[in-house]
Amino acid sequence: MPVVPRQISRQTAAEAVRDQLLALIQAGTYPVDTKLPSEQELARSFGVSRPIVREALGTLRAAGVLESLSGSGSFVRATEPTKSGLLLLGHYSPDDLHEVRTHLEVPAAGLAAKRRTAGQLAALEEIVARHATRTDVVDWVQDDLAFHVALAEASGNELQAKLVAELRELQFEQTVVMARIAGGLGVPEAEHRAILDAVGAQDAAAARKAMTAHLVAIRQRSSVAREAPPFKRVAG
């Protein structure tokens, strides 16, 4: 009997869509190297919103099951999560991203400490304060990325800010998966607070040190996520 989409409840909707999509792929409904329906079509089939479908697709991309091709859509690349896992947009590993972010964001944190305006500091403080009110992982991750972009903007270097902003989609997928698997939002919140405190004190060395520690911790959480059983969820 063929596997077909079924309507699902709102609770754990993204996980349910992810699991059903994987089942459809494994059943041969969407064979390897074929293109998935659009986000809009999938949302209609499952009876959920497009953001829920987007999170589900992002998790499968991060696990190496799907690959997104710019302007073309999502393609099936495997029937099981790959051992490498957490490939970003199907191509780039967390280690690749860590190297790039270290070169971009560590010096940017130091510059932000020296150059930030009162308004920029207030915006960063608002984002970090909002962390504690977030219970939905996707909402928290959106704020997490906003913090890093706002910090880059505070560096006063427009190109720096543009490059950090353009990493957002890569970071979104990785960070959602890590939050689901590696557990909890409190630890990265504390890391953001340490960066914010250094920027507020206009201590460039401390800001660079805090950002370095944050990126190293992200890399470690990424390693935990890669070693975890596929799609295991840890409450956060």
Describe the structure.
The protein is mainly alpha-helical and 236 residues long. The chain is 64% helix and 3% strand. The protein has ten helices and two strands, in the order αααββααααααα. Strands 1-2 form a two-stranded antiparallel ribbon. Helix 6 (137-154) packs antiparallel against helix 7. The radius of gyration is 19 Å and the shape is elongated. Residues 232-236 have low confidence and may be disordered.
Reconstruct the topology from this structure.
Layout: H1 13-26, H2 39-46, H3 50-62, E1 66-69, E2 73-76, H4 94-115, H5 118-131, H6 137-154, H7 158-166, H8 168-181, H9 186-200, H10 204-227
Antiparallel strand pairs: 1-2
Helix pairs in contact: 1-3, 2-3, 3-8, 4-6, 4-9, 4-10, 5-6, 5-9, 6-7, 6-8, 8-10, 9-10
